Amino acid sequence: MISDIISKLFGTKNERELQKIWPVVGIINEHFESYKKLSDEELQRKTEEFRERLAAGETTDDILPEAFAVVKDACRRMLGKRWIVTTHELEWDMVPFDVQLIGAYALHQGKIAEMATGEGKTLVATMPLYLNALEGKGAHLVTVNDYLAQRDAEWMGEIYKFLGLSVGIILNQMDSKQRKEAYSCDITYGTNNEFGFDYLRDNMAVSIEDIVQVKGHHYAIVDEVDNIAAAIQSLDRLKPDVLFLDIQMPGESGFGWRVPSDLLPRSPEVIVPTAAGLCPAILRVAVRLER
């Protein structure tokens, strides 16, 4: 009852967060209106301007309203243009709404943005991906299957390319050379399985040249995060037949798994590396124990 009274007086936590974001949305739209006067070349030069400002000491938070506005205006300028997405020609018809700007802001902050099917999650991700890719350390979009990875990369990719960023896709059938090229791009799309197993293989690499995730783990957006959470819960229910190991990132001493050998079964079968390993220093891995 007390919590209900407090919520009525001060609003829910979600409502309070939205109240903080709405002023930023207004600033984004002010920049968006001013950018309409720029030529395509002038808008595209904003990407290099942002990179220079970041190198000079500004943060992604500092340039967020301008960067989001640049992506929004790029979307406006692409209206009516057509390109191939997974063998089908599609016409671009999207410009972010205010609610999508809110979702993009939340994703940049590392929060979960809950959106129903059809509300434009794919478009929402373009803004924080563009912003965080400007630091030159890579930005990853983690989705659930190869089709969505390819579709979203090809669909949204023209927006990034218009603004001067490169886009890569990680697919199951790719070899190491193709994977390294994709990870070298400013923005990389792929599945949680591909990102996770590439991470594991990189930690077992015998030389620097064998590593494919060349830009490391700077920023990632996880699509369908509720599915990944459900997968982790299902793995938890496998205990005690499943042992969970925390595998740390390698240090200066070299590459390898920092896991006591007596904890590993003789022939462990890796079930699934979770997306938790993409950004933090520890990757949680489940291995099925031999009976």
Can you give me a brief rundown of this structure?
This protein has 291 residues and is α/β, with parallel strands linked by helices.
How would you describe this protein?
This protein is of the alpha/beta class. The protein has two domains: 2-223, P-loop containing nucleotide triphosphate hydrolases (Rossmann fold, 3-Layer(aba) Sandwich), CATH 3.40.50; 225-291, no CATH class. Helix content is 47%, strand content 15%. It contains eleven helices and nine strands. It has helices at residues 2-10, 13-35, 40-55, 60-77, 98-108, 121-124, 126-133, 146-162, 176-183, 192-203, 225-236; strands at 82-85, 88-91, 139-143, 167-169, 187-191, 220-222, 242-248, 269-273, 282-288. It has a four-stranded parallel β-sheet, sandwiched between helices. Strands 7-9-8 form a three-stranded antiparallel β-sheet. A two-stranded antiparallel sheet has the order 1-2. The longest helix has 23 residues, at 13-35. It is globular, with a radius of gyration of 21 Å.
**DSSP helical segment count:** 11
Number of domains: 2
Termini separation comes to: 52 Å
User: What's the CATH class of the largest domain, please?
Assistant: Alpha Beta
- What is the fourth-level CATH superfamily of the largest domain? P-loop containing nucleotide triphosphate hydrolases
Look at the structure and give the mean pLDDT.
81
User: Structural class, judged by helices and strands?
Assistant: alpha/beta
Describe the strand arrangement of the main beta sheet, using strand numbers. 4-5-3-6
Query: What value does the Rg take, in angstroms?
Result: 21 Å
Shape: globular
Named at the architecture level, the CATH assignment of the largest domain is: 3-Layer(aba) Sandwich
